[in-house]
Specification:
The protein has one domain. It is built from two helices and four strands. A hairpin with an 8-residue loop joins strand 3 and strand 4. The longest helix is centred in the last third of the chain and has 12 residues.
């Protein structure tokens, strides 16, 4: 839908790490890092970590797009 409306090819720059109760943060596909938000800071602070193995293949595939 985005490609049709904007007449361009959208590319992912972030993907979620997990979903619903298992949501851990967002994977930055540009820098290849996982951003994990601190629940106690009301979402204002986060830490940057390496991408866990369970998300590595998905991150690589999405980055190639």
């Amino acid at each position: 839908m985005m490609a049709e409306r904007f007449r361009s090819i959208p590319v992912p720059i972030q993907i979620p790490a997990g979903s619903e109760d298992n949501f851990r943060g967002a994977i930055d596909l540009v820098n290849q890092k996982l951003m994990v938000w601190d629940d106690s800071s009301q979402g204002m602070e986060y830490t940057i970590q390496e991408i866990p193995e369970e998300f590595a293949a998905q991150a690589t595939t999405q980055r190639k797009k």
